Amino acid sequence: MMKCEEYKEHLADWHMGRLEPADAAELEQHLNTCADCREALAATGFVLDSINNLQDPEPPIQLKADFRAMLDDFKAKEKKSVFRGNIWSWLLQPRLPLAYGLVILLCIGGAYLLGRSNKQGQEAQERKQAMLLTMLDNPLASERMKAVNYTGDLKEVDKRLIAALLATLNNDPNVNVRLSTLEALAALGDHSEVRTGLIKSITTQDSPIIQLAIADVMLKLQEKGSVGSFRELLKQKGLDDEVRKKVKETITKLI
What we know:
The protein is mainly α. It folds into two domains: 4-117, no CATH class; 137-254. Helices cover 75% and strands 0% of the residues. The protein is built from 14 helices and no strands. It has helices at residues 4-9, 11-15, 21-31, 35-53, 61-78, 82-91, 98-136, 141-150, 159-171, 175-187, 192-201, 208-221, 227-234, 241-254. The longest helix is centred in the middle third of the chain and has 39 residues, at 98-136. The model has no long low-confidence stretch (mean pLDDT 77).
């Protein structure tokens, strides 16, 4: 006659129908008289059913690496004593006992929730960008200003939003909105589309305030590609004297 500990080792096999008929009958007879084993069977069944019902999300690569590192660290520590070594051997049995099943369930569940959270975060970013694109077309300058300022809260920006910001910089009738847009674009200077757009914008600006500010931005970004546009700007008639001086200084510092 087996002991409870031995019966519990066969609970997962019984739940999945892998026990021989004679062994299954013996286990079922024992379950009729042992409340502790019945409780263990219920827990085992819950773990296995939960794993089977998951949609098998692909865990992120970093999560896999972290979990493997956790297991390696755990095994190294457990080898320090015979008792803990026996526990580790028990956990790695192919029968997938309750404790090991719980570990796997938690890791898979964590990967699923992490993937779902990332997807929801990306969808939220896309909705916010769509909202900002709409606000940039608002007839009220205050709303367009808000949209420009909100771009600083975005973790990522796509090409549509960059193009909309460049269009605002070049065409918005309100100088304050254009100045704020320039500041927002300067913060996105690691995007090649932004740098290219700013260089093209130099000769289209007619406000001395914007012209001075864009010179500062090009210096901050150390954008040597802007030298040609600044030289074209110097050829414009009626250019403000302060702007002309600033542009010459900027060219000298960039070349």
